[in-house]
Write a structure and sequence with these properties.
The chain has about 450 residues and is α/β, with parallel strands linked by helices. The chain has helices spanning about 10-25, 25-40, 45-55, 60-75, 80-90, 95-110, 115-125, 130-140, 145-160, 165-175, 180-195, 195-210, 215-225, 235-245, 245-255, 260-270, 290-295, 310-320, 330-335, 355-365, 400-410; strands at about 280-285, 300-305, 325, 340-345, 365-380, 390, 395-400, 415-425, 430-440.
Length: about 450
């Protein structure tokens, strides 16, 4: 008979075990161990700090921030606590508080490169590019091995149109840490943006080698390498991409990227629909965090949202304007919905599809006769002959306006309006798009 042996850890060892579970994304086990340890040592500053960061990363930012502040109250001169407090505040878009935390860290240690780097991110969030660049340069001067500072400096230079300077920064980061997947990811995007697909392919191939289970790496590699492009972004890629940024996504879209798609769609609908009287059952197809929800509310008798990202749906649920929210793949869900909606709106969702005929046909089947479909896609600026859609280096598809018109017609829509528009900024430059409104024929 095998004798069971209990392994007894002292408190520092147990905290390190919880931290390792946390870092390896074993969140349920980490949470349980953190909570058990807090019962034993509720005022241990390291434990408060690590569990506070954990809470911030798992959707309880207010509680997490409060716990980190308790740790700082006990050990006010420990720089890492202030830096990590700034990080979680920045992630929560509490910019002024984040800056105060980083400046407190620098007051304790003026040579803290991480604090300078993150202060640069504060300036970047405020669109203070020159100040951000100086902060990143200071961070690199203090610690040239800080790869994140090299990449951040590269991003600033990319945004001002200095692609070669951005590539040099990214190459410097890779020189410091050739095994860092993020450096190869960013380098691939830069090469693709600069019209160097072969070099982009090599960078994305290296990213995929270093992170083989990453759906984003597979998707971007396919964008520049595959002979036959995927017909749409995979469910895994969409979920991975948007779950990571759900908490800060909306603020970033509104402020950093000047995102306009929901407003453009609702402006187009205002000239098309009858006066709002809460008369329609509406589907927000690819609802994300729910930016369209409040804009559609005047027309809503019932509002349904669908998205692949659980993190995005959590943010949408907090708006309390949706009657139903579903986590599902869009086309399959539409095909099974029945003809129930008088209006379907899709802001920047069909840019994750190449060929549009199937999803548009599914949307038509989910509309009642006479119902309206409104959506945006990214516009292909220089289409090649016969090229309806193109998977670009940013992971989204661009569409030829003439192809969109043909796909709408093939799906059986009438009364079609297709207008060019600028949807948002990317790398400091406008993203060309199309705003499309069409109707399912009445009397069917």
């Amino acid at each position: 008979m095998t004798e069971r042996r209990e392994v007894v850890l002292d408190l520092p060892e147990a905290i390190q075990l919880a931290l390792r579970m946390h870092r390896e994304h074993h969140f349920d086990a980490a949470r349980e161990l953190y909570q058990q340890l807090l019962q034993v040592a509720p005022e241990h500053p390291d434990l408060q700090h690590f569990y506070g960061v954990f809470l911030c990363q798992t959707g309880a930012a207010d509680d997490g921030i409060a716990l980190i502040r308790r740790a700082i109250a006990q050990v006010p001169d420990f720089v890492d606590f202030h830096v990590n407090l700034g990080n979680v505040l920045l992630e929560a878009r509490r910019i002024d508080e984040a800056e105060a935390a980083y400046r407190e860290a620098l007051a304790i240690d003026p040579a803290c490169a991480r604090a300078w780097n993150n202060l640069g991110a504060i300036h970047d969030a405020r669109e203070q590019a020159a100040a951000a660049e100086q902060a990143y340069l200071k961070a690199i001067e203090l610690d040239h091995r800080l790869t994140n500072a090299h990449n951040n400096l590269g991003l600033i230079r990319w945004q001002r149109g200095d692609i070669e300077g951005a590539i040099a920064c990214c190459a410097a980061a890779i020189g410091v840490d050739p095994e860092d997947p993020d450096g190869h990811r960013f380098l691939g995007i830069l090469y693709a943006t600069h019209g160097l697909p072969d070099k982009a392919a090599e960078a994305f191939r290296r990213w995929l080698e270093l992170d083989p289970d990453n759906p984003a790496a597979r998707h971007h590699y396919a964008a520049v390498c595959a002979d036959v492009k995927p017909e749409r972004a995979s469910d895994a890629y969409v979920s991975y991409t948007f779950d990571r940024f759900a908490a800060s996504f909306e603020e970033k879209l509104r402020t950093d990227l000047q995102y306009r798609a929901p407003d453009l769609l609702c402006d187009a609908l205002a000239g098309r629909l009858p006066a709002p009287a809460q008369q329609f059952e509406i589907l927000d197809a690819g609802c994300g965090t729910g930016l369209c929800g409040p804009l559609l509310a005047p027309w809503c008798r019932r509002l349904v949202g669908i998205d692949l990202s659980a993190g995005m749906l959590e943010q949408a649920r907090a708006k309390a304007c949706y009657d139903e929210l579903h986590q599902a793949e869009l086309t399959a869900w539409l095909q099974s919905a029945g003809s129930r909606f008088q209006l379907i709106v899709s802001a920047d969702t069909l840019c994750y599809f190449g060929p549009l005929e199937t999803v548009l046909g599914a949307a038509r089947s989910a509309l009642t006769p006479g119902g309206t479909l409104a959506f945006t896609v990214e516009r292909m600026v220089q289409p090649s002959a016969g090229e309806g859609s193109r998977l670009s280096a940013n992971g989204r598809y661009q569409h030829d306006p003439d192809y969109v018109a043909r796909a709408i017609d093939a799906a059986g829509f009438t009364d079609v309006a297709i207008e060019p528009a600028e949807l948002r900024l990317e790398g400091g430059h406008p993203v060309a798009g199309l705003v499309v409104v069409a109707a399912r024929p009445g009397g069917e």
